[in-house]
Design a protein that fits this description.
- The complex is a heterodimer of chains A (128) and B (162).
- Helix content of chain A is 46%, strand content 21%.
- Chain A has helices spanning 13-25, 39-48, 66-76, 91-99, 112-127; strands at 4-9, 30-36, 54-57, 81-86, 104-107.
- Chain A is globular, with a radius of gyration of 13 Å.
- By secondary structure, chain B is an alpha+beta fold.
- Chain B contains 3 helices and 7 strands; from the N terminus they run αβββααββββ.
- In chain B, strands 1, 2, 3, 4, 5, 6 and 7 form a 7-stranded antiparallel beta sheet that branches.
- In chain B, helix 1 packs across helix 3 (88-114) and helix 2 packs across helix 3 (88-114).
- Chain B starts with a helix and ends with a strand.
- In chain B, 40% of the residues are buried.
- Classes of the chains: A alpha/beta (128), B alpha+beta (162).
């Protein structure tokens, strides 16, 4: 089983902990979990930590939001798997995210089981 | 859409949003209380201990505010994180994130059902009893919905202006 490196981006420490808790409950053991509180911090941590496989990002954050962060990442990295976890639940916003390179999308509020299923799907893709 | 229809819609959206949050992420008993379509002393906003506020901008302009007490915020944090106790900064974060989720769900519900689109800000949180009775703009329409979550008071207030 490949070691999987995950970057969790959310301005809410509560949500980062909720995501981390679900991540730990999957059968996958993430080799590294890095946390960031906004897009700027996430870009810095993504650059400083080579080998991130999966990014889990909120949309609404101060300084740089999740969509601006995704666009920056996709300028240089087409492979990292990006899942957006956000309160933005309209079809237009989902389309905007997918059009800009988001691979998977989860709307808050969510059941932990739904997040767990999506994480496993992402990890299987990393291992493929 | 006239202001009466909008008020009814926002009350429905508030109920749905709060219910969705507690059913999915924080399973505690939830009861819907009284709805208000204008400011009233019966809202008892002075009785709460913290409020999370989010601004709305677009086809609907105004704010969503979620009023709670520390005991409920603790309960929410403990349910979501399965931790016995929480630090003060965690309590601030929790009320902000609950407000974010409720406002985001209202936005989605109003957009999907009525085609009205607006953006939401990041949440701000005010704690401390004397500061919670936030002034509503005189030309605003106002709705409020009371709830009991985990047997504690929760209040959602929407102030909408043109």
């Amino acid at each position: 089983m490949k070691n999987i490196n995950v970057l969790i981006v959310d301005d809410s420490p509560l949500m980062r902990q909720v995501v981390l808790k679900t991540l730990n409950e999957t059968n996958y053991k993430a080799a590294t979990v890095i946390e960031a509180g906004n897009g700027i911090e996430a870009l810095e941590k993504f650059s400083a930590n080579k080998g991130i496989d999966v990014i889990l990002s909120d949309w609404h954050m101060p300084q740089m939001d999740g969509m601006a962060f995704v666009k920056k990442i996709r300028e240089t990295d087409k492979n990292v798997i990006i899942m957006m976890i956000t309160t933005e639940g309209t079809a237009e916003k989902m389309k905007e995210a997918l059009d800009h390179g988001v691979d998977n999308y989860l709307v808050k509020p969510f059941h932990a089981d739904d997040l767990g299923r999506k994480l496993k799907k992402a990890f299987i893709r990393v291992e493929a | 859409m006239d202001i009466t229809q909008l008020g009814d819609l926002l009350i429905k959206a508030s109920k749905r949003s709060v219910r969705d949050f507690f059913e999915t992420m924080c399973p505690v008993p939830l009861e819907e209380g009284v709805s208000f379509k204008e400011p009233s002393k019966d809202l008892n906003r002075d009785n709460y201990e913290a409020v999370g506020i989010i601004s709305l901008e677009g086809q609907i302009k105004g704010s969503v505010a979620v009023y709670t007490k520390t005991k409920l915020i603790n309960e929410i944090g403990q349910k979501m994180l399965k931790k016995a106790s929480l630090a003060t900064n965690e309590l601030t974060d929790i009320i902000g994130e609950v407000t974010n989720i409720v406002a985001g769900s209202i936005k989605t519900w109003v957009s999907v059902n009525e085609g009205l689109n607006f953006e939401i800000s990041c949440p701000s949180v005010i704690q401390g009893n004397p500061y919670l009775n936030i002034t509503i703009q005189p030309d605003s329409s106002f709705i409020a919905q009371k709830f009991k979550a985990a047997h504690e008071d929760l209040l959602v207030v929407l102030s909408i202006h043109s």
